[in-house]
Amino acid sequence: MSGNSTIVPSVLDQLSASGHKKVVFCNDPDTGLKAIIAVHDTTLGPALGGTRMWTYNSEAEALEDVLRLSKGMTYKSAITGLNLGGGKAVIIGDPRKQKTEALMRSYGRFIKNMNGEFITAEDMGTTTRDMEYIRMETNYVTGVPESLGGAGNPAPYTAKGVFLGIKACVKEVFGTDMLAGKSVVVQGIGNVGEHLVELLRQENVEVYISDINQDRLQEVARKYKAKPIDADKIFTIGADIYAPCALGATVNDKTIKTMKFAIIAGSANNQLADEQVHGQLLLEKGILYAPDYLINAGGLINCYAELTGFGKKRTMQLTENIYDATREVIKLSKTEQIPTNLAASRIAEKRISDIKKIKSSY
Ligand code: NAD
């Protein structure tokens, strides 16, 4: 063995380090399925999380991704008040070339064999059609189309949660949650972004929009009288609020330096490039950050509704709780002088440890 070989922690050591309960490696040569299902924590309920299909460069990279994402789901369910644990799955492969009915159904059988400990939904690289294939093999799947008894497109609920997260932050910074006259930059006007633009324009907010899809940019600008801007203007514009609704890691060393926003609140996952560093930097700069996994939980609430049979009214009520939950995070952040992302983690961890205690009695 070479003297300078890098020491890679064993899989079980990685699970211990991140507090994971279980990881299932799925291998089916007949269909080409190679997947990893991670169950982080099931204190609050079965582990729910989407299935991502992606061309990972290595199994180690896929494992790292699924461990990180499943842990995030534990926190998201906990802070949203749902009785769900955290899980996630990744299928290794190119969704455009390697996805077949047989592969998805084979994957569904692996989920079935977990007997309800893990429930899945869509994520990057998977669609409602794929959820239908999984449903052919197991009931432990959500995100199937409304026509098949599912709860349908989660984006309107996600957008509503983000909108309420913005309101909760505006209340903190400006003393009122009236949005009229405020300005917001929405980066990415896809499924969630467009719904958000609509809600903001209904309250007479000045909305700037940016997207790499120029046709869509012009269409949404016309439809809602929003102002299209170039991507390179986002972090220098003098708007009140930045709503990232496209990619993650847009809040980083470079962008924080130039941004003049008072608030960051959007739907994109993992907005802070480095949770440890950038939450603190935003606090020091006086920019209020609404933790992404809290305010974008409307989609998860929609999955929960599908499982529990809640109707649209209850789904909307649960989504509306995001306003108060955001206010609670801001309050803790202020009293403890800690970044809002850290305050959110503390609230989520407290709920998990409290519920663990009640489970000690039969
Ligand atoms: P989407 O694919 O419908 O829309 C994304 C939009 O962003 C597209 O219009 C795309 O052209 C644009 N985009 C991509 N790269 C960009 C860039 N560099 N600059 C500007 N625009 C860019 O996705 P979505 O469902 O609207 O989700 C948006 C974000 O919210 C994602 O990060 C997603 O993970 C997150 N999210 C979505 C939901 C949901 O219910 N859909 C729930 C939770 C979190």
TrEMBL record:
One of its GO terms (molecular function) is oxidoreductase activity. InterPro entries: Aminoacid_DH-like_N_sf (IPR046346), Glu/Leu/Phe/Val/Trp_DH (IPR006095), Glu/Leu/Phe/Val/Trp_DH_C (IPR006096), Glu/Leu/Phe/Val/Trp_DH_dimer (IPR006097), Glu/Leu/Phe/Val_DH_AS (IPR033524), Glu/Phe/Leu/Val/Trp_DH_bac/arc (IPR016211), NAD(P)-bd_dom_sf (IPR036291). Gene3D superfamilies: Leucine Dehydrogenase, chain A, domain 1, NAD(P)-binding Rossmann-like Domain. Residues 152-360 form the Glutamate/phenylalanine/leucine/valine/L-tryptophan dehydrogenase C-terminal domain. It holds the Pfam family ELFV_dehydrog_N. Keywords: NAD, Oxidoreductase. Its EC number is 1.4.1.-. Belongs to the Glu/Leu/Phe/Val dehydrogenases family. This is Glu/Leu/Phe/Val dehydrogenase.
